Amino acid sequence: EDADRLAAFEARVAADEFIEPKDWMPEAYRKTLVRQISQHAHSEIVGMLPEGNWISRAPTLRRKAILLAKVQDEAGHGLYLYCAAETLGTSRDEMTQALLEGRAKYSTIFNYPTLTWADIAAIGWLVDGAAIMNQVPLQRASYGPYARAMVKVCKEESFHQRQGYEAMMALAAGTPEQKAMAQDALDRWWWPSLMMFGPPDDQSPNSEQSMRWRIKRESNDALRQKFVDMTVPQAELIGLSLSDADLKWNKEKGGYDFGTPDWDEFFAVVRGEGPVARERMKARRDAWESGAWVRAAAMAHADKRAARFAA
Ligand code: 3HC
């Protein structure tokens, strides 16, 4: 009987139908969606930390206002995605505890430090650029709430990427010190940005099932290739160079050949050994503890209002 339901489910997915919260779905589908969507949400929230560090240090009021807007957007993306995951039967508390206890991941990219203002430009340009590359196909993910959440997120990510590239352009066209700062940031953020797309396809245990059930529409390596092809000309346009001796246009392929990311570094950062991983997790745990009174007050307020209306 479950075999029939699985066959019907797979036929719906193969016909590009959206699966909605109340539809029958294999437990493995529910489980992998909670895994991916909750970790996507954790990435958005943890991603606020490196950028938040520079809101009070932005070079102009304009840059400060733009960065403030972007960090607020990331918080909204996180809340949006937690809501999408909750439609699968998990709770905000369960997801938060999984993160704080190290049982859930967030994107490796946020375990690198933001050392100069140019890092904030590089994050907008490269990290949000990679995020867009990965999230555009997710707008057609088979799970309805996730796909719909991605439509709004992608619109805002485009602003994030544009403002980052524009800030990078300003630095690259600035004084020699500013251009050197931009180049240093590109050198430090290039390879970690390529790692955001996940391990190579032949070391990606979730891909086979996620591709079959149309959660993942393009493979890790395919999206990484698209990102390189789009971003290298952008770097060249503003006179910055990429720290990859193997980077070369391949006419037959119609794309760039490029070097191999340091997968040992990637898997170490996934394991929580990133340069500032401890600081990121401490910041999240401290926020959870110091926010306890706010949650208690909000619950008390909600109970009082409910009692007032019930009376
Ligand atoms: N950082 C941390 N963990 C990673 C990772 C990364 N960059 N790439 C892969 N992993 C983990 C996977 O989560 C998986 O571990 P798990 O089974 O415990 O979850 C393991 O490494 C093997 O990877 P797979 O390729 O088998 O896993 P997936 O099929 O899930 O593919 C993915 C990985 C492409 C990141 C996919 O999960 C995905 O598309 N997630 C949604 C997008 C997302 O999370 N983006 C975060 C970007 S940051 C962001 O959006 C903020 C921006 O606005 C600034």
Automatic annotation (TrEMBL):
A UniProt-annotated Pfam family: PaaA_PaaC
InterPro entries: Aromatic_CoA_ox/epox, Ferritin-like, Ferritin-like_SF, PaaA, PaaA_PaaC
UniProt xrefs under NCBIfam families: PA_CoA_Oxy1 (TIGR02156)
The protein's name in its UniProt record: 1,2-phenylacetyl-CoA epoxidase subunit PaaA
Lineage of producing organism: Bacteria, Pseudomonadati, Pseudomonadota, Alphaproteobacteria, Sphingomonadales
